[in-house]
């Protein structure tokens, strides 16, 4: 008599992939596509890169040999860092137009019904802006060194460029806010007011040392001043706080702006 033994195979438990599970992941492919799309915008890239370089060649050549008493750096170095900050800020803020266009054609509405989270949406835009800004910073510094013979230790150039690049994050977030709140007909005037205000009052066009004293107090309230400042401190400017103070201020701006962006994205997603 033959007996048979039945074997029971228990399948391993598989965690279901829910919408909330997917939302917790950063969509790398979407980030890559967003970055590539921004870098293919040739007209915007030329405009963003050309203006800082032209201003650098004009002002840097005129005042380059003089010493800036407030920073201890040559004016050529100061102007280079100003224009690098200016170009990086322009590259980041230009994201606003893309977001406004996406809203106008309903693309953002489609994204909200996908697993893309508010954090994922925000990070994708920030990474694209930082890639754009990195090119602008590199080109500006390269022109200063090659064409104007700006002299600074390689370590200082690297620290200054890295500080400015990291400091771009709040401006990318400002661009997202403009894109989220502004209507297409109002986006360009709002962009110009924000951009020109940050550039002029933050001391990116003209050193604050040659401007009225009251502008110094206003500048300290703006992230554009601290973007320029972190570049100066990386280049070895005089000061006891080093790069830590501007880094903390820019981080505070980034945290506050990010919270507003995620809140707005989630609120709009809840309406779908």
Write the SSE topology:
Blueprint: H1 19-23, H2 28-39, H3 42-63, E1 67-68, E2 73-74, H4 75-93, H5 95-104, H6 107-112, H7 118-147, H8 154-166, H9 169-181, H10 184-201, H11 214-219, H12 223-234, H13 244-270
Antiparallel strand pairs: 1-2
Describe the overall structure:
With 272 residues, the chain is mostly helical. The protein is 71% helix and 1% strand. It contains 13 helices and 2 strands, in the order αααββαααααααααα. It has helices at 19-23, 28-39, 42-63, 75-93, 95-104, 107-112, 118-147, 154-166, 169-181, 184-201, 214-219, 223-234, 244-270; strands spanning 67-68, 73-74. The protein has a two-stranded antiparallel ribbon. A hairpin with a 4-residue loop joins β1 and β2. The longest helix is centred in the middle third of the chain and has 30 residues, at 118-147. It starts with 18 loop residues before the first helix and ends with a helix. Residues 1-24 have low confidence and may be disordered.
